[in-house]
Amino acid sequence: MKNVQYLYITVTHLLVVLSVFDTWPYAASENCDLSGTLLYEDMGCRPFYDRPNLCPSKFDCLGLKKSTTDCFLKGKTYKINETVDSRLTAGLCDLGCRCQGHEDKTRFKCATVSCPEWSVLEPPTGCYRKYSLDDCCYIREMCPPYENSTICVYDGKVYKEGENFLPKNSCWRCVCQAGYRGKLEKPFCRRRSCGVQVKNQEKLQERCAPLYYKRKYRETDPLCCPVNWICSEGNEKITGKPQSEKMCLFGQKLVRVGQKFEKTVMMPRNLTVSCECKIPPLLTCVTYVV
Fold first, then answer.
1. If phi over 0 gives left and psi between -120 and 50 gives alpha, with beta otherwise, what is residue 194?
2. Burial letters for 26-53: b for 16+ Cβ neighbours within 10 Å, e otherwise?
3. Contact (CB, 8 A) for 154 and 167
């Protein structure tokens, strides 16, 4: 990371999440995070359900074809040179995002915030960094004697006021605050932001597939934000019996639910990835790591 010489751009109270998915109808009988629905949710895609109390069977998303005139973010279309309200992207450490044309596609160009914690040592012994769900960077260091005695308990672990934590087996992010009752709910917790439309607009327009890392023997780990993208080379051998008429988009290919392929990619070392059409419109790719 660049040495920012303590360039500290605070975005306190800047982020106001304006998403219909703040009240996402999570299924009672399924953990939809296991299926990678966060990506669609974060993109502002419209969910469709085959049956109640189950995860969506498909989504309708904007921005999955090449455009020379428009960018897409959370279900909204932006014209070339149109700027995004920074309240929508501040939590991603991106400000002043503007839609730009790039060759035969479009992308967002943003100013990136540099947080002090990226380039400095850990806080002094006994101190910790205080966070807010609305901020990209930490907002202050907390050292004894503490201002209050607020603590939060989740999954047997104790957190101090302002400490950031990621509940396991979910795609939520929480910050300990007074009144927390051990549940994944606002204003204490918020769904994580992947920012793929801001950072990977071109990959989406090429209909690439999100790639997730999973650990062996931990199938209950959720698929939250993708770590990379697998793009079509046109020679993938599709196998598997279609399980429905629903289809995923992959480059110029149409892949039905239940169909899959495997391939080896260099990222930067050789990795075997398995990609399958699970919940359209995108394939879901997974590679197992130690």
1. alpha
2. ebeeeebbbbbbbbbbbbbbebeeeeee
3. yes
When pLDDT is averaged across residues 255-276 and rounded to a whole number, the result is 91
CA 70 – CA 93 distance, rounded (Å): 23
Distance CA 243, CA 144 (A): 59
Q: What is the pLDDT of residues 38-96, one digit of tens each?
A: 999 999 999 999 988 899 999 999 999 999 999 999 999 999 999 999 889 988 899 99
Which residue from 230, 264, 265, 263 is spatially nearest to 248, judged by alpha carbons?
230
pLDDT band, residue 30 (cuts 50/70/90): low
Sign of the CA dihedral 263, 265, 270, 274?
negative
Peptide linkage before 124 cis (omega within 30 of 0): no
CB 41 within 8 A of CB 26: no
pLDDT of residue 118: 83
Find residue 212's DSSP bridge partners.
286
153: nearest Cα among 165, 145, 141: 165
Residues 224/194, Cβ–Cβ less than 8 Å:
yes
